[in-house]
Amino acid sequence: MAPVARGPSWTPAIPASDRGTPAHAEEDAPEAPKLREEARLAALVATIDAETAIVPAGAVRMTGSGATVANPAFGGLDATAAQNIDS
User: Is 69 in a helix, a strand, or coil?
Assistant: First the structure.
């Protein structure tokens, strides 16, 4: 005969009715907006794309206010510089 699986041998110190959020808090809380997985994935991809964007060295410059703008003095890279990861 196989042994019988039993539940935990301990009892929680806090009664189940006192754990978690109070019942009245759940009634007053506004319902969270329903998001489809496609919208969450699209937002994640957009965030990753924006945070990992790369440009050639010297192609952009930072203004005094901290904004990044295209560098008008940048004329592009030649073929050998374009193949170099450091440029």
Answer: strand
